[in-house]
Amino acid sequence: MTSESAPVVALRGMTRADLKDVLRWRLAPHVARWFDTRGPATMAEVEARYGPRIDGDEPTRMWVVEANGRSVGMLQDYLISDHPEFAVLTPDPAAIGVDYLVGEPAWLRRGIGTGMLRRWFSVARAGYPGATTYFAAPDHRNVASRQLLVRVGFAEGAWFDEPKPDGSVATLVGHSLAVTTVLG
């Protein structure tokens, strides 16, 4: 495979050994701007946020996105109803939420996002077989993410404000995918 051909995208379960990459990705300028933090991410913050999810102590599932065998990003999925603070924001509180990032700048705009979400559709169907809706809500200014979601079959929906820990407000755009309609 040459560097010009489409990368092979895979998902694998995240382990604590991946947290050093997660921290690096979170600190990347193209990623850091979308996180609700009061300063740069630290290893302690990353471990506190993602460690319990990796360990299975929280219901959010964590995945590493690989391109041609290299770790380049992450994805998490969860039942929206497990997070009541989010359930009121979606048209379907029984939806499966998905959040993602491509953390390696060299892998941006190379089809990783499209491949990652398409791969995730299979993972989500296996892990949440009764789900009828997938849901994502990027910041309204994150045009690349919004376009990615539409490209893979999500429909853009309501805009809503979400309070951030620092007292400010982020305006998010809900995107829903009707599983049986879009994926068959």
UniProtKB/TrEMBL annotation:
Family matches, as InterPro entries: Acyl_CoA_acyltransferase (IPR016181), GNAT_dom (IPR000182)
Domain named N-acetyltransferase: residues: 9-178
PROSITE patterns xrefs: GNAT
Protein's UniProt name: N-acetyltransferase domain-containing protein
Organism of provenance: Nocardioides panacisoli
